[in-house]
TrEMBL record:
Pfam families listed in its UniProt record: Metallophos
Highest taxon listed in the record's lineage: Eukaryota
Record domain Calcineurin-like phosphoesterase: where: 58-205
PANTHER family: SHEWANELLA-LIKE PROTEIN PHOSPHATASE 1
GO MF entry, a single one: hydrolase activity
Entry protein name: Calcineurin-like phosphoesterase domain-containing protein
Species for this entry: Panicum virgatum
């Protein structure tokens, strides 16, 4: 996870200094600049959003957060869009446009709280002329498929706690979901203090079954959290920048960005229980090494690739960006050991630095 500011005028990328502890210091900055006078309103095309016009806005991108609420907050505060108070979740970004490029789920214990936080910030940002957008990554699609291999035990616990809170809210989804981030920490402490909740030892089959059932009910196709994820695209264009989790490739553009977004959304919202429902998982967007959420063509460590492979990725990036009339792409998915950086002759920014405690536990960068 990292913070990257974008603008029409380009960017300045200094070296990647390390602190005395060996962790990466802030390493990537961009120059933000808008025209004179008040900016025009933000317009959104597509359902889920596919093309966004945000004239004169500062655009901030944040990479993979993987269930780490504390690090997510730190990155948002660093980006200037979240109040610094530990118990407050107030939008301070004004007209800023914030984009999170996927992998909110798995490896951490506060996934729903992060989803709740971003939704709450979006509600607060809109009246101020700002906005918050999310892009689905491979871990979002995996969970909707029922693939829970990378779920932290605390993630199962959070699902059980959230369902209890939803019941207390009389099933009012909007109230429970938007407010969850404000009660999640307190509920977690209460849950841990209860002697009846046990732990995740290998023989605690009852707790495991309850946790699995809770998560399945929330994330299964047509489930409430699957429907929340269905609101978000797998590829988003804001002004002249492309945002996606893995990487946009020429055959994705040929297939149709809006078409992919609609098909993934429809698949997530469709329960699959209706005998007339033949909605299959959109393979081109969510499966395989060259799908939108899984591709590492642009983000793989340069040291691990040949000069020919590096040249090929630059050519592919240029062809892709020209075809969608964009000047750059921002991706996550692959942790960048040396910090935020741009690849493919400056065309692709890679902003996943493994911030979550479940990955590399790196410090936020800007």
């Amino acid at each position: 996870m990292a913070v990257l500011s974008l603008s029409r005028l380009g960017f300045v990328a200094p070296p990647y200094p390390r602190t005395s502890s060996g962790r990466l210091a802030s390493s990537c900055r961009a120059i933000a600049s808008g025209g004179g006078g008040p900016p025009r309103r933000i317009t959104v095309a597509g359902d889920p959003p596919t093309v966004v016009s945000a004239p004169g806005r500062r655009i901030v991108a944040i990479g993979d957060v993987h269930g780490d609420l504390s690090q997510t907050r730190a990155a948002l505060v660093l980006a200037g869009v979240l109040s610094a108070e530990s118990d407050g979740h107030v939008w301070t970004g004004g007209r800023t446009v914030l984009v999170q490029v996927g992998d909110i789920l798995d490896r951490g214990a506060d996934e729903i709280a992060i989803l709740s936080l971003l939704s709450s910030l979006n509600v607060q940002a809109k009246p101020q002329g700002g906005a918050v957008f999310q892009v689905n990554g491979n871990h979002e699609t995996m969970n909707v498929e029922g693939d829970f291999r990378y779920v932290d035990p605390g993630g199962f616990d959070e699902c059980m706690r959230f369902l209890e809170y939803l019941d207390e809210c009389d099933g009012n989804w909007d109230d429970a979901f938007l407010n969850w981030v404000n009660v999640a920490e307190r509920r977690k402490k209460e849950y841990r203090a209860s002697p009846n909740n046990g732990d995740w030892r290998s023989w605690n089959f009852v707790k495991k079954q309850k946790g699995f059932a809770a998560r399945s009910s929330l994330f299964k196709r047509g489930g409430p959290l699957a429907c929340e994820l269905a609101r978000h695209p797998v590829v988003l264009k804001i002004n002249d920048w492309i945002f996606c989790h893995g990487g946009l490739l020429p055959h994705h553009v040929e297939y149709g960005i809006g078409r992919m977004n609609r098909e993934v959304s429809r698949w997530m919202k469709s329960s699959g229980e209706n005998s007339n429902d033949e909605t299959d998982i959109p393979f081109i967007a969510t499966r395989g090494y060259d799908s939108v959420v899984w591709s590492r063509l642009y983000s793989q460590d340069s040291a691990e690739r040949t000069r020919r492979a590096l040249l090929l990725s630059s050519i592919v990036a240029e062809e892709t960006l020209e075809s969608v009339r964009a000047k750059g792409m921002v991706v996550g998915h692959t942790p960048q050991i040396h910090g935020v950086n741009c690849k493919c002759d400056g065309k692709v920014w890679c902003i996943d630095v493994g911030m979550s405690y479940g990955v590399l536990y790196s410090r936020p960068e800007k």
